[in-house]
Amino acid sequence: MKKLLGLSAVALALSGCCAFCELNTNPPKTSTVDGEKVLATFYVQNVSYQLLGFIPITSGVTWQKGGIEHADDWEIDWFDDSATLDENMKCLDHACTVVGSHRIGCISHNIHEDPFWSFFICNRRLIKTECVIFEPKQ
After folding, report:
1. Which of 138, 30, 23, 26 is nearest to 92 (CA)?
2. Most buried of 32, 60, 86, 103, CB within 10 angstroms?
């Protein structure tokens, strides 16, 4: 059993368990959606792993503090499952605060569970959120 847990830990370390966020504050000048000017585009993804599908092993930590330069800092939570839609929305809220507008559109979420990732021993969850942020109303 120790060997199996050790191999699982190595596999997780090599598999890239993390959160990634991209906030593009320089969209093309002509970017509009339904007549609204796009201020920025936003993308966040978070990955978590659970032992036997319900015991949290590790997950990424989304960007919720600091400026744009910290948006892609990688952090990992051990023995906690912070790869949730709520965490992605907190990251989006922080991105909106940084750019100065909470008007969003074209939002989409994608949640992918992969229980077959390691023969039912580990479950991998990937949650993605993306949207555009519009200029504030005058």
Report:
1. 23
2. 60
Q: How far apart are CA 21 and CA 2, in angstroms?
A: 35
Q: What pTM did the predictor assign?
A: 0.81
Tell me if 104 sits within 8 A of 132, measured CB to CB. yes
Tens of pLDDT, residue by residue over 4-47, are 555 555 554 445 567 889 999 998 877 677 788 899 999 999 99
Backbone angles phi, psi at 106, to 5 degrees: 55, 40
User: Which residues contact residue 91 at a Cβ distance below 8 angstroms, ignoring those fewer than 6 apart?
Assistant: 19, 21, 44, 62, 63, 64, 129
